[in-house]
Write a structure and sequence with these properties.
Chains: A alpha/beta (379), B mainly alpha (287), C alpha/beta (250)
Helix content of chain C: 25-40%
CATH class of the domain at 4-90 and 164-242 in chain C: Alpha Beta
Largest sheet of chain C: 6 strands, mixed
Strand order of the largest sheet of chain B: 1-2
CATH topology of the domain at 4-90 and 164-242 in chain C: Rossmann fold
Number of domains of chain B: 1
Order of helices and strands of chain B: HHHHEEHHHHHHH
Radius of gyration of chain B: 19 Å
Number of helices of chain C: 9
Number of strands of chain B: 2
Largest sheet of chain B: 2 strands, antiparallel
Strand order of the largest sheet of chain C: 7-8-9-4-10-11
Order of helices and strands of chain C: EEEEHEEHEHHHEHEHEEHH
Helix content of chain B: over 70%
Strand content of chain B: under 5%
Structural class of chain C: alpha/beta
Shape of chain B: globular
Distance between the termini of chain B: 40 Å
Oligomer: heterotrimer
Radius of gyration of chain C: 18 Å
Chain lengths: 379, 287, 250
Amino acid sequence: MRKFVIGILLFMFVGLYATAETVKIGFFAPLTGFAAADGHSALAGAQIAVDFINAAGGVNGKMIELVYYDDAARADQASAIARKLIEQDKVVIAVSGSYSTPTRAAAKIFQEAGVPMISAYAIHPSIIETGHLIFRVGMGAPVEGVAGAYLAVKELGAKKIAILTMDNDFGVSLSEYFKDTALKLGAEIVFEKKFPLGEKEFRAILAQVRVKKPDLIWATGYYAEAANIVSQARELGITATILGQEGYDSPKFIELAGEAAEGVIIVTDLNRDSEREIVQKFLAEYEERTGHPADMVAASAFDAIKVAAYAIAQAGTDAEAIAAAIDNIRHMYDVVTGPFFAFLGREAIRPVEVQIVKEGAFRFFHTFTEPEIIIPPGL
Amino acid sequence: MDFLQQLVFALVLGSSYALIAIGLTMVYGILKVLHVAHAGIYTLGAYMALLVVTHLTRNFWVALLLGMVAAGLAGVLIYRGVYYYILRRPRIVPLIVSIGIFTAMNELFRLLFGPYQHAFPAVLRFPMVITPYFLITQKQLLIIVLTTFFLLMLYLVLNKTRVGLAWQACSQDLSMAGAVGVPVDWAVALNFLLGSALAGAAGVLMAFYRNMVYPTMGNVVAYKAFVVVVLGGFGSVRGSVIAGMLLALVETFLGSLEWFNFPRDAIAFLLLILVLMFRPKGLFGRL
Amino acid sequence: MELLETEGLTKDFGGLRAVDHVDLVVRRGEIHGVIGPNGAGKTTLFNLITGYLRPTYGAIHFKERRIDGLPTHRIVTLGIARTFQIVRPFTELSVLENVLVAWGHRYYRKTGPFRPYANARRRAREILESVGLADRADIPAGTLPIGLQRRLEIARAMALEPELMLLDEPAAGLTEEEIGGLKELVGRIVATGVTVVLVEHRMSFVMDICEVITVLDHGRVIAEGAPEEVAHDPAVIEAYLGTGSVNAAG
């Protein structure tokens, strides 16, 4: 009889420990479909963050539990997942490891339900405009586009620029800000064309570009489009510098583009040559776990988890308090794509990194910290 | 002078369309079945070649050969293992089954190889053509030359050999062909073998050209090949080749115009609608 | 056993019995006619022998081998060729090519399907000559007038080099003159050693060239024998007069 009672007490104790002592953070990313490579990267980045934090004692003494689902980069699936995370899993805060279109859909649902959400790398401006509970860690399209224009015109001295825009939320917003700023800085746009997501054949367009003889080509796309644009451009003998963005920031881009990737410059927020300890620690851990070098997507997901955990540590589980905590962040150093100087307008303000592909890997090229570049226009 | 360069692109693109559409139209001509799974065979050829270049040898020709063989055999398997038993059913049955096979194949590739794009690291020495007005890269020249070769061989087979005549007879009157002693089952199997091998070749060539192999690479091909077949006329090989080139020409020239912001892949659909409205039997069809 | 023998051959289509326990015997080298009023089951009989239909009961023996159940092209290879009531040439192939398709039958599987036609063309032209189509060898078969399409049917059957040839209403729609030519052609075919069985409505034609006649009515054999015997057989006269069909005296 005594053994029985002790057994029950032990069971209850363990049970209570297991269930009561975790903090649930929701997460969704494309684990299947065309974006699966990025989704897996994001998930790995998020999991590393969770493990680092839990190893250091968790948040307010509790362990973080990452509750994640696959949205296949689709808005309808992301919406369903959002509802699930809110109603079933009752997460304290959610992180999106997915693309802009599904994140936008999910953001609406989280805002309405009063649950904060942080977008890791989905950058369409309307995402954070959804409401006061929606934040973004990843660099926004305005900042990226503006920085790209400064890099192209001021640093690289380009006077004639061709713009190839992937026709979706991500690509269009990037090109819009790039073009505005480039024109303001005095460059000439000699060619401009949109193409659909998933396009594989660019030679006809690139032949037209070649005729215009630009100094630089600004091409938006995810890694598959980027690889095709870059390799086909080189195949046609185009020698102009190709300037990409965070969509290129993946080892898959280098793998698929092969030699053509050499010399491609991208605007991103991950500096692989950074001397900060958190960066190198993250890069090493990621490579060890997955066998690939890390990319921007993974780094952003990592940072989003870090911000979420920080906010919970500061404010507990109340949604409004968490939101306030994030708004009040000043100088957060322990993040990979940082340091975060502040959160303004619910997005992280930090340096813009520029990387170049050298000998088959992304290396440091330039950093922007000027306020007029890194603070989004309008703030 | 840019016109000539665009023409080169169109020729290359049209070659791939023609190679795929031929198999589709040959099968339709004889069996009157819309062999949607053909696009899966295109992808299978590419994956087979990928296995060869990543595990066996980087030599492009070996990869091409084995890719074609695998594709050809897969085609025969699908005929003999599946279509053969449902040919007497109403025509919609083989169509649905074919779609099912195609979907299953895509999923199989995704499970075996992952949903990502793989690079295609084959190695090939091939000449290039450089003129002041246009250039043809190694890969482009390869595709043009190989396709011409395949089409020539096909022409000879169709018009100068026994089996070619048998195929023509089968596509005009299948049961009559049986009545005059053509071993129909065997003739159809050979037809699948050849058509599928060509589709496999197209898959390998495209994988090489774009340096990309991925499970859904047959999706766009599936409907575009269908459009080419309708445009050229069901059952007409000559029609498929011409229609394939035509579609490529329209896509290339329209798609390169700066003001044309319509997705390039939708042009095929537009053409399909036009053809069905004004000339449903296509250019050379016998529907 | 004779060249072709059917044993209790029966075919049912649902509730309808089209062929009813038919015992047919065809001897080598003879010209054998099969007649009967409309719907007597003559074409169904041909369809059974050539493998288009499977018998419901009964057996078919050809050269002492059971052939019921075999696929059509197999039966063709064994030596039976057949023409159709409604001619079906390969309309888009040339006249010569129509014959070539049939000629290829023994070569398809054996000596390589990708071989060209070479000396087969010569043989095919010879066949066309023997049916009088040599001058039209290269025009599309679909453009021939019906009488000549009939001859093409027969030419195709000849190209199969059969031992037994089944002709399904070869004289239908022909003029008197054309019939004369047809009789002559059949005679030449038989002279080469081929056995011929024909189904026909034109009594004069049948009586003229056949050595043996089998009469069917409602799927059953009601008479069999030499033409004069059969013409005067009361059961036969009854069957024809009863349905108001063709004049038996021709």
